[in-house]
Amino acid sequence: MSRKGRSNSKVLFVIVAILIIAIAAGATLLMMKGKDKQTVAGANEDNAVTETPAPEKKVQIYSGTDRPIAVMIDNNTNAWPQAAINDAYMVYEIIVEGGESRLMALFKNKDIEKVGPVRSSRHYFLDYVMENDAMYAHFGASYIADEQIPSLGINNINGMLEDGTTYKRDTSRKAPHNATTSTKKILESANKKGYRTTSDQKSVLNYTTDEVILEDGTDATYVKIPYSTYNTVEYNYNAETQKYTRTSKGRKQTDWNTGEDITTKNIIITFAENHPVESGSVLQEVKNIGKLKGYYITNGKAIEITCEKADRKSKTIYKDSQGNEIKVNDGNTFVQICPINAQVSFSK
Fold first, then answer.
1. What is the extent of the structural domain holding 324?
2. pLDDT digit string (tens) for 162-215?
3. Any domain includes 102
């Protein structure tokens, strides 16, 4: 064969080889596309291919299995500033003798070096210890509370009966406004006493991670709650932080540990009748069982609610005007259990 013939044969061979490779590649691609279509079609039929769901949001203010710790906090002006109030998930304020009020702060999953000043118990606070399934830290008690704490089976740590290591006196202040403790010390004492330190109970409040906006609520960028002629609590709303700053007896309250303003995300007001436990006594009785009127306040708005507590150990259920349990913003809450005739207002 001539040189020219051999050359033409090589060219023809290369062209044929290229065509074969192209056809094979095209066939493979068609087969892959067909498989993909079959896979997607089959997956859709079986609902196997779905979008990855967004991670579920979890409530932050009340989480974990640590059992809550309830601490009685002195609210006399000689006890200010108070330590660790901003670290509590809930704070109850209730009237005591002489027009004064006292606080009970609840802590969960917190390691706090200084809490206080710790003060003595009053028997109606026990209801809120029990509904929160909490251990109870206090320094002394009224004679009624002293009798009821063991009869109600409350796990308590009383500073009057401790060995001197659980509570200590802060020398920068005068007694009785200077007893402090820590969550670590409370837990150490609880373990020595054999108390249960974990809890699987749900929170009293119906928290939600979705921001609660009370669209139809009353404007409440300012809140005034009189406990007595000289003891008035006020809250001012900060739209930037979406929290309320607390004032009491005409003074802005701050935290002993940090110097920061005491603030809250939520405010619940409950109107409850109070009167002396007996003629001539200064100790108070508070009628907090049943269906009581109140307000839920958050994000600059307030709505009327009912506060329903079936008995002393039952959780309080807070309901809106339609009878539905209210949803509460994921943040700390002040529960203001104030006299039934308190002239609460939302304007200065």
1. 207-339
2. 989 999 999 999 999 999 999 999 999 999 999 999 999 999 999 999 999 999
3. no
C-alpha 13, offset from chain centre: 81
Q: For residues 331 and 9, what is the distance between their CA atoms, to the nearest angstrom?
A: 85
The CA–CA distances, whole Å, from 261 to 83, 106, 141, 245, 247 equal 11, 18, 29, 7, 9
Contact 68, 199 (CB under 8 A): yes
Is residue 217, in this structure, part of any structural domain at all?
A: yes
Q: Is residue 131 part of a domain?
A: no
Q: How far is CA 53 from CA 4, 44, 57, in A?
A: 69, 17, 12
- Judge whether 315 and 204 are in contact, CB under 8 Å: yes
Please check whether residue 309 lies inside any domain of the structure.
Answer: yes
Contact 121, 170 (CB under 8 A): no
CA distances from 269 to 51, 55, 223, 330 (A): 44, 34, 10, 18
pTM, two decimal places: 0.85
Which amino acid would we find at residue 123?
H
102 touches 140 (CB < 8 A) = no
Do 305 and 317 form a contact (C-beta atoms < 8 A)? no
**Domains contained in the chain, number:** 2
Distances in whole angstroms, Cα of residue 260 to Cα of each of 116, 252, 264, 286 = 16, 10, 12, 32
